[in-house]
Amino acid sequence: MAIAQAMCTAFKQELMLGTHNFATNGNAFKLALYAEGGGGKSSTTATLGAATTAYTTTGEVANSGSYTAGGGTLTKVAPTTSGTTALTDFADISFTTATITAMGALIYNDTNSDKAVAVLDFSSNKTSTSGTFTVQFPTADASNAIIRIA
Amino acid sequence: MFDLNVGAVGAVNIITSENGGLSNDQIADMLANKLIYISDEAPEPIRLQAEAFRDRIRNLAQYYIELARKEERASICAKVREAGQPELANAIGRL
Fold first, then answer.
1. In A, which residues are within 8 Å of B34 by CB distance?
2. N or C: which end of chain A has fewer CB within 10 A?
3. With an 8 Å Cβ cutoff, are B14 and A6 in contact?
4. Which of B41, B3, B5 lies closest to A85, judged by CA?
5. CA dist., res. A6 & res. A118, Å (int)
6. CB within 8 A of B82, min separation 6: which ones?
7. pLDDT tens digits, residue range A10-57?
8. Whole-prediction pTM
9. CA B27, CA A55: separation in Å to the nearest integer?
């Protein structure tokens, strides 16, 4: 599978090294959209998964509407805990007036060398046509939050 | 030895539109899904009750989203009309 949902292995190591700061006044994180089947810019295909270490332009969708190379900056919600699980969350992100077909996304640390955090697999192609492309993050709880450490 | 179970990434929901922004229904669904999560593993009576509650919240949200958009358009129409563009104001009003 070219895009496989995962928390990137390098990210797990970098957590132990203190590379990533999810506090609201911490690092800037971005979300970039990717396509399979040659649907990325210059007919490229994304290969993303646990082994991904950093943002790449290969397979990224082309600029359209408010979507530009590198994707959009995520608005962070301060990390918290629920029971024995630590979790963090982001506000939903939208790209408007955009014609986009994407199969997945990469969350990465824009402050620290574009280091990869997590790969999101949409399971199927999602398309907006001269419209809005919204990524809604899951409920921020111990069972569903976008990034959890149990 | 600590066994840290790292690696949980939640599932996102993708909402898209064509030739315009998201509809009132789509936004209401987003709100209800974010506000009330119902586990597939919940006992059926509880799950059904929760789903009914979520539907009520969703329908309420849909009504007020529609109202908010309508009122916003009315405000925009008034400003555009004040600026001497009555035809454009009428076109916005018909949205």
1. 136, 139
2. N
3. no
4. B5
5. 6
6. none
7. 999 999 999 999 999 999 999 999 999 888 888 999 999 999 999 999
8. 0.89
9. 30
Give me the amino acid identity at A56: T
Long-range contacts (CB closer than 8 Å, 24 or more residues apart) made by B35-44: B37/A138, B37/A139, B37/A141, B37/A143, B37/A144, B39/A143
Order of all β-strands in the sheet with A85-90: A76-82, A85-90, A147-149, B6-9
Tokens representing residue B65 in the block:
């989203």
Strand residues in B10-78 grouped as ranges (E): 13-16, 18-20
Least confident of A102-106, A144-148, B40-44: B40-44
Give dist(CA A36, CA A61) in Å, integer.
Answer: 9
Burial classification of residue B75, based on how many CB atoms lie within 10 Å of its CB (0-12 exposed, 13-18 middle, 19 or more buried): exposed
Q: Nearest CB to A134: which of B4, B6, B15?
A: B15
DSSP assigned state of A17: T
Chain B residues whose beta carbon lies within 8 Å of the beta carbon of residue A141 = 37
Residues 6+ apart with CB under 8 A from A108: A29, A30, A32, A54, A55, A114, A115, A116, A117
Contact B11, A121 (CB under 8 A): no
Check if B13 contacts A (Cβ < 8 Å): yes
Q: Which residues contact A34 (CB under 8 A, 6 or more apart)?
A: A3, A40, A46, A48, A59, A60, A61, A102, A103, A104, A105, A106
Query: d(Cα B2, Cα A26) in Å, to the nearest integer?
Result: 28
- Angstrom distances, CA of residue A15 to CA of A11, A21, A117, A138, B11: 6, 9, 10, 22, 21
- Out of A131, A136, A139, whose CB is closest to B19? A131
